[in-house]
Amino acid sequence: MARRTATGFALAGAGVVLGVLLATLGGTLWHGPDLDTAQKLSTILGVLVSAASLAVGVATFRRQRKPPAPDLTRFAEDVRSRWDTEAAVRGVRRPAPIRVRWASTTLPVAASASAELSGDILDAATGFRTLPHPQLVILGEPGGGKSTLALLLLLDLLNTRDETDPVPFLVQVGSWHWEKSLYEWLAEGLAREHTALGDVQACQRLLAAGRILPILDGFDELPPEHLPSALEGINLAVDGGKPLILTCRTTEYRELIEDTESPLAGAAVIELEPVSANDILAYLDTNPLTAQRWRPVLLRLRSEPAGELATVLATPLMLSLARTLYADPATDPADLLRLPHRTAIEHHLLDGLIPTLYRDGGHHSDDVERWMIFLARYQDRWNIVGIDWWDLHFALPPLRSWLLRLLHPLVGLGAMLGLVLGVWSADWLDGTPRAVLGATLGAAAGLVATWWATPRFPNPVSRAGLRRARRRALAWAIATAVAIGVVLFVLPMRQAAEPGTRALIIVVLVVFLAALVGLTRYGIVMGDMPVDFDREPQAVLRADRSYARSQHLVLVLFGLLGLAIAGQQAGPAGVVVLAFTCLTLRLRFASASFTLTRWLLALDGSLPRDLLAFLHEAHQRGLLRRSGPGYEFRHRLLLLRLAERGRLRSMRAPADRG
């Protein structure tokens, strides 16, 4: 990418050199015997030639300069810093990790028999390093601690890593793009998130050489129909013993291997065990003060180690929820003993999380619960995992989604085209308001066209992408300006007799067309820019707003062009259509569509107006977890429970009204 950018600058500089030389010649011929003017023009343009030559030299030097070698040490520090922070937010080490034990699975899901492995969450890194091939599959039940084990394993591998060990890199595999191979998709993410590794090609080489250890979390969250091809793609990528760690639910992985008969060739498979009764007691009975309140529960667990309460708390998710819900001295854990069965206990723990986390202020827990139920139902309906702010327009109810469709750029462009055609229409429309009729018909045609071009919004972009696109657009604008300037200087303009008028026309045309070409090129480049997945959602939103503001000049130029075409005959209708069209073009950008979407969702209280601030607070309180520039629910079970409660409420509402 850097070399192509340098090439663009070099070509632009060469165009400047050639252009100013031709312009000097054309200016001399134009002014004829006025040698003094010609000499002054030649002197000025000579300075420009020198500056352009210097630009060419700098661009050539940059092109020849070798890119820096990948810095794996800096990459490891970046990964450690990021996931240390996330581990602190999730509270997986407070006061100590839940003692989750693991052992080699007895299920027929491994390619070959291997040495029996066993251990707990604290020595997973040691067990991983004893494997003959650095490939591991971690299986477990829902809420069994797979993601927590993957996170702590990553941190342990980093803390005990030497220079020859691969650097672990944790990623949610549910966002895998199917048109790309595994390493191609991973390399694009690494190049976006960690500039110390170099470009996409450099990252692919590091993956192929085994210098980076991908930890693919949540394999079971991929669409079921894609799991066989995903497994085949992973097998192909890690062939030859390249490092890999994969987490998946036990049932889904067993069924997948039974269907495909193609387990990962070199991977050991371990399975997480339920938390033992002694470990449950040790986790809950941390000090004399808490032990007093927990005494009835501890007695039940000791007397019924296989009872329903012990079975529920044997899941790390439920155990951590129980400790969170009853951390306040005013609460009574004995409430758990009065619940009739396992499902009631699980629902009680999941339903009590939001009131507990928002007990000390902030938003009211009832509001938070309503907002989270809305988000959970939206994700459950579309079968998605993350809360990405630029995709929230899919959560709009039908009536409000129609408003967003009416503001589709095709509607605005259709109205503009209809306005122009109406003004230029034949005599048979003389007795009607041609501009209004044409704009109306054009907008209707554009609305119909949206059924074949559904509203799509570009991904937000990073600031690095902004800078790269601006440099490339500048090169195109310079080259265009020089080319136009040369043509206008060399070709005589006898129809503009006054030199001042001639100069003004030249300047206006050069600036207008160069800006239009440069900004068009800028938009094309930005359309290819991917999401920056390693930044806070608020930072990504600000970057996209910067991109949108930089494109406002395009709207101004478009408006001027439309006014020039429609002329005075358009009247007030022309002003209205131009304003509407510029608004629809503004909504092409993810940040603008998000602003409108969140206001539409706030009309009936479905979501708060300051949505990103609310999601950030929910993450800090432990209700959500970060997933690149978006968020996810703390656990899939919490999402499903909230969605179920939302469905039950919607079913009861008509009955209550009746």
Written overview of the protein:
The chain has 27 helices and 9 strands. It has helices at 2-31, 35-64, 72-90, 124-129, 146-159, 182-193, 200-208, 227-237, 250-260, 277-284, 288-303, 308-313, 316-325, 342-351, 353-357, 365-382, 398-406, 409-423, 434-449, 463-490, 499-527, 537-550, 552-566, 571-586, 590-602, 611-621, 636-657, and strands at residues 101-104, 118-120, 135-140, 167-172, 212-217, 244-249, 268-272, 624-627, 630-633. By secondary structure, the chain is α/β, with parallel strands linked by helices. The strands form 2 sheets. It has a 7-stranded mixed sheet. Strands 8-9 form a two-stranded antiparallel ribbon. Residues 1-11, 28-35, 47-51, 60-65 and 493-497 have low confidence and may be disordered. Strand 5, helix 8 (227-237) and strand 6 (244-249) form a beta-alpha-beta unit.
Topology of this structure?
Layout: H1 2-31, H2 35-64, H3 72-90, E1 101-104, E2 118-120, H4 124-129, E3 135-140, H5 146-159, E4 167-172, H6 182-193, H7 200-208, E5 212-217, H8 227-237, E6 244-249, H9 250-260, E7 268-272, H10 277-284, H11 288-303, H12 308-313, H13 316-325, H14 342-351, H15 353-357, H16 365-382, H17 398-406, H18 409-423, H19 434-449, H20 463-490, H21 499-527, H22 537-550, H23 552-566, H24 571-586, H25 590-602, H26 611-621, E8 624-627, E9 630-633, H27 636-657
Parallel strand pairs: 3-6, 3-7, 4-5, 5-6
Antiparallel strand pairs: 1-2, 1-7, 8-9
**How are the strands of the biggest sheet laid out side by side?**
2-1-7-3-6-5-4
Structural class: alpha/beta
In percent terms, what proportion of residues is strand? 5-15%
The quaternary structure here is: single chain
Task: Report Rg.
Answer: 32 Å
Number of helical elements:
27
Percent of residues in helices comes to: 55-70%
Total strand segments? 9
Mean pLDDT: 79
Largest sheet: 7 strands, mixed
Low-confidence runs of at least 5 consecutive residues? 1-11, 28-35, 47-51, 60-65, 493-497
Coarse morphology: globular
Distance between the termini: 64 Å
